[in-house]
Amino acid sequence: GGGTVTPGTAAVPGKLDSDTSININGQEVAFKKDDDMAAVAKAINDANTASKTGVSASLNSDGRLQLTSSDGKAIKLANGDAATGGSGALAKVGLSTGSTDAKLGAATSLILNGTEVKFNSGSTLADVVSSINSASTGVTASLDKDGGLKLFSTKDITIADGSAGTGLSTLGLTDAAKSTTAVKTESSVADLSILKADDAQKTIQALGDAIAQIDTQRAALGAVQNRFDSTVANLQSISENSTAALGRVQDT
């Protein structure tokens, strides 16, 4: 599971010429002089075990480092501490500084409220959000400030793995989500905000719910109006019949 990121630089030949370090998601990862890329990958994996960086490493077929995000979030990379030889360290191991959008390494899916939502290999979390919001599940999605997937609804949400059996772990959702989980956001129109992407998504949800409620009330009022129209028509008929009867009585 997890999103996979393969750097675009060429494979790094040979061994490191000095001790150095990089920063992965805020955690310093140190490498030793003469480490080859296999040793670099091992150090990254050891750091993930010890410090829970959320990133594991392997080598692809042409010797490049391949980083995998365990929760699907973007991987934030920086050169390490200059005091420990970190200046320019990313380039030495074939990586580049910045935040790299994680991508799904394989197709997967989730079942939301009984409907399976599928995600293609290579999809970013932004693509996952778009797929969820395009599906008719009663659930909307957005990314939180850390780039993680966030689901919400005005009603309870039932979440389960899709047919691939990997959706929950790949997208960083907990095993507890396999059971029915209540995720409620009750907003009034007066409370709405569009200053942040997450708030804007909630605004769309709240306005959608408000429109649905208006449609329901309009249908109910339409039914009442139809009954009133029928009653008025009946009363008009009774009035006309009464007038006609009165005329016949007067004629006699």
Architecture overview:
The relative contact order is 0.11. The protein starts with a strand and ends with a helix. The strands form 4 sheets. The protein has a 4-stranded antiparallel beta sheet. The chain has 5 helices and 14 strands. It has helices at residues 37-51, 89-92, 125-134, 167-170, 197-251; strands spanning 3-5, 20-24, 27-31, 55-59, 65-69, 75-79, 98-100, 103-104, 108-112, 115-119, 140-143, 149-152, 157-161, 180-181. Helices cover 35% and strands 23% of the residues. It is an alpha+beta fold and 252 residues long. The protein has 3 domains: 3-104, Alpha-Beta Plaits (2-Layer Sandwich), CATH 3.30.70; 108-184, Alpha-Beta Plaits, CATH 3.30.70; 188-252.
Quick recap:
This protein is of the alpha+beta class and 252 residues long.
Assembly state of the chains shown = single chain
Poorly predicted regions: 176-189
Instruction: Give the total of domains.
Output: 3
How many E strands? 14
How many whole angstroms does the radius of gyration measure? Answer: 30 Å
The CATH architecture of the largest domain is 2-Layer Sandwich
Please state the structural category. Answer: alpha+beta
Number of helices: 5
